[in-house]
Amino acid sequence: MPALSSTMTEGKIVEWLKKPGDKVERGESVLVVESDK
């Protein structure tokens, strides 16, 4: 997972917004990440 900030060391996926097989458009979110900040 790419860092969401320069100090981010960990991230946790807390929610998937898409299911397997769902269509995803460019720029569309597919998950929600919780970070240490």
How does this model look, in words?
By secondary structure, the chain is mainly beta. The chain has one domain (1-37). 0% of the residues lie in helices and 30% in strands. It contains no helices and two strands. The chain has a two-stranded antiparallel ribbon with strand order 1-2. It is elongated and about 35 Å long.
Class by alpha and beta content: mainly beta
Q: What's the helix count? A: 0
Strand content: 25-35%
Largest sheet: 2 strands, antiparallel
Instruction: Catalogue the unreliable spans.
Output: none
Mean pLDDT: 89
Outline:
Helix content is 0%, strand content 30%. The protein has no helices and two strands.
Helix and strand topology:
Blueprint: E1 11-16, E2 31-35
Antiparallel strand pairs: 1-2
Primary descriptors:
mainly beta, 37 residues
